[in-house]
Amino acid sequence: MSSYFNMPYDRFNKSYPNGPFRFINREYFNIFYKTDKEKLTEILPHPLKPIGDEIIFEFIKMPDSIGLGSYTEAGQVIPVSYNGVEGNFVTTMFLDAFSSIAAGREIWGFPKKYAKPTLEVDVDTLLGTLHYGKVQVATATMGYKYQEIEHKKARTALQKPNFLLKVLPGVDGKAEICQLVALQLEQIEILGAWAGPATIELHHHIHAPVAHFDVKKVIGATHLIANLTLPYGKVVENYLKK
C-alpha cells in the first residue's frame, strides 16, 4: 500500500504529498478585536474555554509552501484554554488553493473553504481583503511596519498550540470522526515582526459568516514574517468514544 495515503488513492495522482510541510517567508497579518464572549463560548467544543472576549482575524500569505505551492488564507481564531494550557481554536478558514484545502481538512480537520483572500502592501498600508464569490466580506488595514516588536514575543505567539474540531462523515452521512485535534508549529524562524494600529470591517454572508463575531473594539494588530514547519497533530479528545 502506498505511503501517500490520501484521495485519490493512485500514488501518481495525489492531492498533496506527505508532511510535515515547510513554509518559507510565511506572512501573517493578525487583527485582535473584542467581540461578544457569549458567541465565543457557544461555538467552542468541550473542554475549551475562551480567554476573555477577544478574537483574532488573520490573513496569511504563503508564497513558498513545500509541497503545497503558493497561496493565501484568511480566517478567525479564538484564544482559548485547554485544561489550563493556552492556545488558539481555529473556527473559520478561507483560501484559494485546492491542495491545501484537501490536506488541511483530511489530516488535521482545518475548517477550510474556497474563497479569495489577499494580503498586500498598498503604499504605506498593509491591506487584507477576503472575497467570497463576488462579495467582499472582510477588509483590514494596518500601518505598514509601524513599530518593530521583539522576535522572541512573536515566536512565543506562533508556538502556542492550535486546536481544531475534526468532524468527518461516514458513507451513511453520520459522524465517523469527531475529534479535538492539537498541533504546534515547529522550527520557527522569525524574519520580521511589527505591531501597529489597525481597522477591520466585516460583512455578513451566509457561506462566510465572519461577521457573526461582530467588532466591538479593535485592540491592535501584528505583522509577522517567518519560516516554519507544520507537523502532524495529535488527538486530545475523541468524542465518539466517550
CATH class type: Mainly Beta
Head-to-tail CA distance between termini: 32 Å
In CATH, the architecture is Beta Barrel
Let me know the largest β-sheet: 12 strands, mixed
Structural classification: mainly beta
* Percent range for β-strand residues: over 45%
Low-confidence stretches: none
Number of domains: 1
How does the overall form come out from the CA principal axes? globular
Secondary structure elements and pairings:
Layout: E1 21-34, H1 37-43, E2 49-50, E3 54-65, E4 69-82, E5 85-95, H2 98-108, E6 112-114, E7 116-122, E8 125-132, E9 135-143, E10 147-148, H3 151-159, E11 162-169, E12 175-183, E13 186-196, E14 198-202, E15 217-230, E16 234-238
Parallel strand pairs: 5-6, 5-11
Antiparallel strand pairs: 1-3, 1-15, 2-4, 3-4, 4-5, 7-8, 8-9, 9-14, 10-13, 11-12, 12-16, 13-15
Describe the structure.
The chain has a single domain, classed as Acetoacetate decarboxylase-like. With 242 residues, it is mainly beta. It is 11% helix and 55% strand. It starts with 20 loop residues before the first strand and ends with a strand. The strands form 2 sheets. Strands 1, 2, 3, 4, 5, 6, 10, 11, 12, 13, 15 and 16 form a 12-stranded mixed β-sheet that branches. The chain is globular and about 50 Å long. It has 3 helices and 16 strands.
